[in-house]
Amino acid sequence: MPNRLADATSPYLLQHAENPVDWWPWGPEAFEEAERRGVPVLLSVGYAACHWCHVMAHESFEDAGTAGYLNERFVAVKVDREERPDVDAVYMEAVQAATGQGGWPMTVFLTPDKEPFYFGTYFPPQPRHGMPSFRQVLEGVDAAWRDRRQEVGEVAGRIRADLAERGAVYSAGAHHPPGDADLHQALVALSREFDQTRGGFGGAPKFPPAMVIEFLLRHHARTGSEAALEMAVRTGEAMARGGIHDQLGGGFARYAVDADWVVPHFEKMLYDNALLLRVYLHLWRATGSELARRVALSTADFLLRELRTPEGAFASALDADSLDEETGASAEGAYYVWEPGQLVDLLGPADAATAARLFTVTADGTFEHGTSVLQLLADPEDFAEYEEIRRRMFEARASRPAPARDDKVVAAWNGLAIAALAETGALLDRPDLVEAAERAADLLLAVHLTPDGRLLRTSRDGRPGTNAGVLEDYADTAEGFLALYSVTGDAEWLQLAGGLLDTVLKHFTDEASGALYDTADDAEELIRRPQDPTDNATPSGWTAAAGALLGYAAYTGSDRHRTAAERALGIVGALAGRAPRFIGWGLAVAEALQDGPREIAVVGPADDPATAALRRAALLGTAPGAVLAVGAPGEAAAEVPLLADRPLVGGAPAAYVCRHFACEAPTTDPAALGARLGVVLE
Q: N or C: which end of the chain has fewer CB within 10 A?
């Protein structure tokens, strides 16, 4: 019989709707029930594509005995971390502080007042590798609750006080935006952690450092640092050639479990692929790398083919697990891995040998049970042969049982995808990608934007969710709208971005310090108002907002928005040298601030080839965070201040390059414009 999760819109919650556990969704009713019964709350947090969440569900939450004990002694609350990142952030901070590590599923025990007192992540069904079983944890927590209630309350109170103290650090307002010395210090710190052999930073597991690469590319563009460019290029190539990159269908898995990028954790997330699409586009723009161009286009095609929803937006993720046809059981990576015999059956002996050599498919395998994750360690000598083999393997793989898709639409991640697709479409002459970006933006407007200008975080099947947007939703959606304006010239996107950023200033910003909160001032009150400037898998809402505020100010000349961006970047100066891997987007935004950012106005008739040539040169520019406005003289000046008072030159289309609305002499020559903006490609 379905439990209370049966009416949820979250695919993750729906995965648990048939559990014998009497789950409650997050809400006041669950905590009122715990208070009424005098029992603690079990908070279980995960997401639909989480492998270990599935494992714990099968082992424990689907077990009738475990469920019966849990239902008798606890109120069980299930949360989708992607729907409620605020709830996840608050309690994950407590888990990490208490245990030194975190992850999902996150398992936290709370008082009916929402105060945490015991923590963990995955617990096995029997004791294993020094971990207690989940049943032992339940029994221990129940005994402590019944017999040592005062001690439990004291622990919960100390944890709550510690969380409040941690939050005060970010609101101190004692920092200034990072200067050139801070950014150089960040580069030096990254150099120390760079893996000279394999690319990337640190050891296993290795996550794709998209935001750090953006910083490195911007730093190179501004300073000419060859060290920065080398780290960006070598990391990009290592990921592109490794198993973390889907060599047949495009797109990237969440991370590599090893230091060599060979074996991925196979789930594919929208946010990773949106960020990496933009990274590889910018790598191509900075170097002309054909590999980077291919990867950018295949990643864009993956987004459209496998993550686009019928409504035109983009789904959140593909699962890591799928059905193994031989065993009939669900297995991680089953959809993606190959054995030599499968190649022979599909391609014949000669082409199979070529495919095995190209994609590093060996008899011993690089994954489990003698299977291999495909890699492309070197470019093929015969691209036509390679493409034919790749096509046949891709089509054969499509007949395998596919991984499940989490088809909820998250505003923030769609904002990232909109920005990446719009830029890629404009730079690589793919108007279909720009159109896809516009369709996704239209869905956000129609379904996620409320009549009072507020954003909802999620939707599914065109039906809005109930959870309020958090800071990253506003910031990343604004970033997407600004990118759409830059490539389409439709001023409505600029105006919509401004509206979202005004909400950021009004509801998410501490006026005294300029610090930013992850939730609005009128959002549900948790035990702490979440606030974190550091990057995780995506840019933090804090630094994403700083970037969007800075870009909007560059278009409009708004001192209010620029000042807010500068104040928000203060924390980046404090973290630049100490933790650059975890503040990459903040460093990238700081590079834009150091460079101006450059404000480019191209004025000319839309149908004039000379206007198009100047626009193309501007788009190819590598100047950090540069903004571009294109319009006919006089037409858009009222809507886009950057275009105001910019006449044609000698009757010809012209480009103006400005900083803080103070402009250099205009030019009508695309090559001269490109030289000013660091254009690498012709």
A: N
